[in-house]
């Protein structure tokens, strides 16, 4: 039953992400991504990928900070550090549980360092997707695996 619920949550999250891409306003885009992240969070908890659930929660906070226009380097770095620390604390899967933590750390750092450069951001995003593809497959999130595979290609 957990397998079905986790994959259904991932399906709802993917639909929310696709719908977010059709939004014209940045705030709507970010809010629909938050909805997707809530479903990803629930799905990863159900599938016992707690370190990834932490990353989903941090993503929600990061998006809400952007929606509310809270611009602060301290807040940005705090969210990165909290994601890494809590990701390590809640890692119950050994090296596998480190994949979402590393994926989000690398991507977040790339966004800070290369926010105006397309190629490094895309490479960091591809790295992020590849690590989540492996993670999702191993926790039996087949919907997430398929979505990541599609994005990777």
Layout of SSEs?
Layout: H1 2-21, H2 26-46, H3 50-67, H4 73-89, H5 95-113, H6 118-138, H7 142-152
- Main structural class: mainly alpha
- State the end-to-end distance: 30 Å
What is the element string, with H for helices and E for strands? HHHHHHH
Low-confidence stretches: none
State which percent range the strand residues make up: under 5%
Residue-averaged pLDDT, rounded?
Answer: 92
Major beta sheet summary: none
Helix content: over 70%
Radius of gyration: 15 Å
| Overall strand count | 0
Tell me the number of helical segments per DSSP (H or I, 4 or more residues long): 7
Q: Tell me, briefly, the overall form.
A: globular
Features:
single chain; 153 residues; mainly alpha; 7 helices; 83% helix; 0% strand; globular
Explain what this protein looks like in three dimensions.
This protein has 153 residues and is mostly helical. It has seven helices and no strands. It has helices spanning 2-21, 26-46, 50-67, 73-89, 95-113, 118-138, 142-152. The model has no long low-confidence stretch (mean pLDDT 92).
């Amino acid at each position: 039953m957990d397998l079905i619920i986790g994959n259904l949550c991932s399906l709802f999250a993917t639909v929310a992400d696709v719908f977010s891409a059709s939004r014209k306003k940045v705030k709507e885009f970010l809010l629909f991504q938050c909805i997707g992240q809530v479903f990803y969070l629930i799905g990863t908890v159900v599938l016992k990928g707690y370190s990834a659930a932490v990353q989903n929660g941090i993503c929600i906070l990061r998006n809400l900070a952007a929606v509310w226009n809270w611009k602060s380097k301290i807040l940005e770095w705090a969210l990165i550090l909290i994601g890494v620390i809590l990701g390590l604390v809640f890692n119950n899967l050994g090296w596998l549980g480190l994949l979402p933590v590393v994926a989000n750390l690398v991507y977040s750092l790339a966004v800070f360092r290369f926010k105006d450069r397309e190629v490094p951001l895309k490479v960091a995003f591809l790295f992020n997707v590849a690590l989540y593809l492996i993670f999702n497959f191993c926790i039996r999130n087949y919907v997430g695996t398929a979505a990541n595979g599609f994005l990777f290609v």
